[in-house]
Design brief:
The chain is built from nine helices and four strands. It has helices at about 5-15, 45-50, 60-70, 70-75, 105-115, 130-135, 145-150, 170-175, 175-195, and strands spanning about 40, 80-85, 125, 160. It comes from Azospirillum rugosum.
């Protein structure tokens, strides 16, 4: 890792900006290196990721790796894949279930300098509506489903995906085109980004 990116990651991992708003305290979870060709931008760490400090180290990560046809060793190769969620810390669980949204202060503070430092990235996966809203802005469609269905519109830089949470199992069943059409294209695009 170059000194500048190493220093930036150290600063991000030491961030305590939202400490008073996080019920479980700060533990920023992110990874990457200047040679990373793929960036995965998700929502925010969940409880298991907060506990382990390893991104996507939960059932959602298992499903994401299945979509990518990638084992854990390949997925966690920081020289090839960077992971920077919209919220670097676990926001806690909402009373009705599911996690709170990522803290709104986080992405505007950390994503611009981290994206600039990860200059080798060829493809960014926007996993879930928070990442899509932030990175696509007015280019996103009316709904997350419509945005994911229009994935070709955002290439070659971005590829929007639904969140791989078990809570989206019904969505996957209702939208079989995702696994039939988009997942094979996702695998090809990721392979091209990583192999080049």
């Amino acid at each position: 890792m170059t000194d500048s990116l190493e220093a930036l990651f150290a600063q991000a991992r030491a961030c305590r900006l939202c400490e008073g708003s996080l019920p479980h305290g700060c533990r920023p979870v992110l990874r990457g290196s200047p040679s990373a060709r793929l960036l995965i931008v998700g929502q925010a760490p969940g409880a298991r990721v907060h506990a382990s400090g390893i991104p996507w180290n939960d059932p959602s990560g298992d499903r994401l790796r299945q979509w990518l046809a990638m084992d854990r060793a390949a997925f966690y190769d920081e020289s090839r894949i960077a992971v920077v969620p919209m919220g670097l810390c676990y926001p806690g669980t909402a009373p009705k279930g599911g996690d709170y949204p990522p803290r709104p202060e986080c992405a505007p503070l950390w994503h611009p300098p981290l994206r600039a430092a990860l200059s080798g990235v060829r493809l960014t996966l926007l996993v879930g509506s928070y990442a899509q809203d932030y990175y696509l802005g007015g280019r996103r469609k009316r709904t997350m489903t419509d945005t994911v269905a229009a994935w070709r519109d955002y290439l070659p830089d971005f590829l929007p995906l639904p969140h791989p949470s078990w809570r989206n199992t019904a969505w996957l069943k209702k939208n079989p085109w995702f696994e039939e059409e988009l997942v094979p294209a996702l695998r090809r695009r990721v392979a091209e980004a990583l192999d080049g």
